[in-house]
Amino acid sequence: MDYSVIMDHGQDVLLSLTLIVWFMVFVYLQNKTHQYLHRPAYQKLLTGGALLSVLASLTSVIPGFPGWIDQMRGVLFALALALGTLGLLGWAQGTIDLINRLTSEATIDPLTGLYNRGKIYDLLEKMIKGRDAFTLVLADLDGLKTLNDSYGHLMGDEFLLQSAKILKDAFPGSHLGRIGGDEFLALIPSSPKKESFIATFSSIKSSIKELGLPIQSGISLGFAHFPSDGLDPYQLIKIADQRMYLDKTQIKKRAGSTDPTPARNKRKP
């Protein structure tokens, strides 16, 4: 091999080797993450860029290539760089999509699309630290277990979905999360008057009954105001839970039940 040729084209060789190393690194990373990123197109772009870099490098160090290929070396490098750049952009976008998807899975309840328990409690802590007045509302669906046992979980899931929509419509601009199987928590960034709450709760209850489920169903609601009812999450949830239990008891009495089921144990964030 004529080493003088290598020296003459040292810059081309260095550039091609740099491109090859970079492209192969990202091809390796893509192979490790392709099952999560789901973007096979950019792997082909990265691979194509690496192959063109190899071809351009070969024209620099090995004699005997046709003259037109040698003259096209600059074009090959440009194409390799263009393909590699597109591949890297695709890989970066795939990574961003993956981060967004994982963030969503970590904070969103998959069935209802509301915040999950961890996220809504984080928001509760932040709102308390902000020291602005707000209202916490607890909601507990009545009849979900009976519906699941008698008609299947698909109908139970539909009950949850429709209930989540009703709550979302009733508390626009609020943070809403599902904190248990049949329990929801809403954080309303204000402290509406009692009359307003009574009207809103009445509307929610009517909407739940209008779902026309084949069993006796409903929703129990309780609320607590910050800071008047409590200064920490435990106090607020305790007060809201007590008021929700009172609502549940009154519902059962109106329905003629002699054994009202108590609310769940005190909830702790």
Structural commentary:
The protein has 269 residues and is an alpha+beta fold. The chain folds into 2 domains: 3-107; 117-254, Alpha-Beta Plaits. Helix content is 65%, strand content 10%. The protein has 10 helices and 4 strands. It has helices spanning 3-8, 10-37, 40-61, 67-71, 73-107, 117-130, 144-151, 153-170, 194-209, 233-254, and strands at residues 134-142, 175-178, 183-188, 218-226. The protein has a 4-stranded antiparallel beta sheet with strand order 2-3-1-4, sandwiched between helices. A hairpin with a 4-residue loop joins strand 2 (175-178) and strand 3 (183-188). Helix 3 runs antiparallel to helix 5 (73-107) and helix 7 (144-151) runs antiparallel to helix 8. The protein is elongated and about 90 Å long. 32% of the residues are buried. Residues 258-266 have low confidence and may be disordered.
